[in-house]
Specification:
By secondary structure, the protein is α+β, with helices and mostly antiparallel strands. It has a domain at 38-96. Helices cover 34% and strands 11% of the residues. The strands form 2 sheets. The protein has a two-stranded antiparallel ribbon with strand order 1-2. A two-stranded antiparallel ribbon has the order 3-4. The longest helix is centred in the middle third of the chain and has 10 residues, at 57-66. The termini are far apart. This is HNH endonuclease.
Length: 111
């Protein structure tokens, strides 16, 4: 169905879906983000972090569960340093074949 837009002219609704940009890849696992994108501070805001990166909610929850703010601050924007952790590597390998909108509970770290 066609609609008239405020700037004039007519446009089909089908064109709007074709113009949507592809979803950004998750900073941690590299899979395309689904319908929900979490903007995560790799360096926590409480530690002076300003930059944000797109992530899946399950990936963010896994990071928060396995690392303290101090550890995240030390790693900074270096995702490879985080992936060197065996628990994170195991998680990323497990979630690699899941749907982008997949969610699940995360295990708590035994401290």
């Amino acid at each position: 169905m066609a609609r008239k837009h405020s700037k004039g002219g007519w446009r089909d609704d089908e064109d709007e879906a074709a113009e949507a940009p592809p979803p950004p890849p998750c900073w941690l696992c590299g899979r395309p983000c689904g319908s929900t994108i979490v903007w995560h501070h790799p360096v926590p805001k409480s530690r002076g972090g300003r930059e944000t990166v797109p992530m899946h909610a399950i990936c963010q929850n896994t990071l928060i569960t396995n690392f303290t703010n101090s550890e995240l601050q030390r790693a900074g924007m270096d995702v490879e340093q985080l992936l060197a952790n065996p628990a994170i590597r195991k998680f990323v390998d497990w979630v690699a074949n899941k749907d982008p909108d997949f969610t699940a509970g995360t295990a708590k770290k035994g401290r």
